[in-house]
Amino acid sequence: MTLWERLTGTAQAPMAPKAAYQPAGGGVLISTLSEIGAALSGQQTTASGHAVSPDSALQIAAFYACVRIISGAVATLPLHVKKRVDDRTRNDASDDPLWQLLRRKPNKWQTPSQFRRMMQAHLLLRGNAYALKVKSALKPGVVLELVPLHPDRVTVEQNDDLSLTYTVSKKNGSPTTYQQDDIMHLVGLTLDGVKGVSVITYARETLGLSLAMENHGASTFRRGLRTSVVLRHPGRLGKEGLDFLKATLDAYRSGGENEDKALILEEGMSSEKISMTAEDAQWIESRKFTRTDIAMFFGVPPHMIGDTEKATSWGTGIEQQSIGFTTYTLEDWLTTWEETVNRDLIPDSKPDLYAKFNRAAIVKGDLTARWESYVKGMQWGVYSPNEVRALEDWNPREGGDVYYPPPNTAGTPANSNPGKKNEPQKTA
């Protein structure tokens, strides 16, 4: 029974497709059930023959690692809510509802890090991340909860007045329309200024090739690999000897306890090992290239996903590559989050309120680098000892609210007393 007969219960389709999945007058030609699923879910079959979707892409180790690293970095960095007191003074806005929303409880079932990790994953996999704003009925402009929405169930359109309208499909399929003020919308790389595009859109062929190579490797191992040893017999094996040899080889290849055991040869037989073929070497190299390409699409240094063989354009040292990741990749996403929060969650009535990630926490795991920065900060009067203690979540100490004057590297200032030692300046 053909696919058409199984699906429709009728006779053979009028015209059989010539290809598994290909454009045909604005549509597609389909011959398998998996290709029907791919077409319905918006997947596209690559030149390698594999349909690539966010779920299938996550099966690739390098792709998953990149998504995990970037999402984890955004999720774990502290997101502060600050208030401008004057041109020079900033205070924590811990008494503002936005602080509670972003730092304590974005919704009833997620922690702040869970919420940001999931939203960032949506942003990487689909180019957009959406959250419905649950507003207070008693306090205008106050957002009580952020309910994440799956990007596949959200469509956004720009109206004639340039405002945005969001249509969300519920689980039962019924659509609900929301206005721009109802949705928090994180946008990745965008070509129209309204909707972001996923990295999968442009990395599809690389991901399809990687999936094809993974399947090739798995099927090769399932079949017992290629022939790596040739057995030579001085004469001609009889049927009894050939059957015995086959049984011995089957037991030898069965794995388990028999793995790595010596193969006993009889009747003057000898063995000759075959080196890796050019095809095998090319397959291994291709896997390395796809891994590097995936890291390049995300802007993640190869060493962070386990590839330490080659240097990158960011430098040969691990430190330089990590700095490059922070500067050119992570900073981009942090800025996107900050600006989106300031636009979508802070009302116009609170112009002095803003959200800011604590970039200093990036070096939290590097004890030496962290304390070197603290020492330099206190040396040049940037930090007071108590401010450093606050960064480490320690209680202040008496006399710790002082700023030490920067070291004099250009001679004695004209207004200073050469005979008097500079003393730390106390804050007001």
Question: Would you summarize the structure shown here?
Answer:
With 428 residues, this protein is α+β, with helices and mostly antiparallel strands. Helix content is 38%, strand content 17%.
What does this protein structure show overall?
The protein has helices spanning 3-8, 33-40, 54-57, 61-76, 97-103, 112-126, 199-222, 239-253, 278-298, 318-344, 367-379, 385-391; strands spanning 21-24, 27-30, 44-45, 51-52, 79-84, 90-92, 128-135, 143-149, 154-158, 164-169, 175-179, 183-187, 229-232, 270-273, 353-357, 402-403, 425-426. By secondary structure, the chain is of the alpha+beta class. The chain has 4 domains: 1-40, no CATH class; 47-223 and 277-364, no CATH class; 229-273, no CATH class; 366-426, no CATH class. The strands form 7 sheets. It has a 3-stranded antiparallel sheet. The protein has a 3-stranded antiparallel sheet with strand order 8-7-12. Strands 9-10-11 form a 3-stranded antiparallel sheet, with no helix packed on it. Strand 10 (164-169) and strand 11 form a beta hairpin.
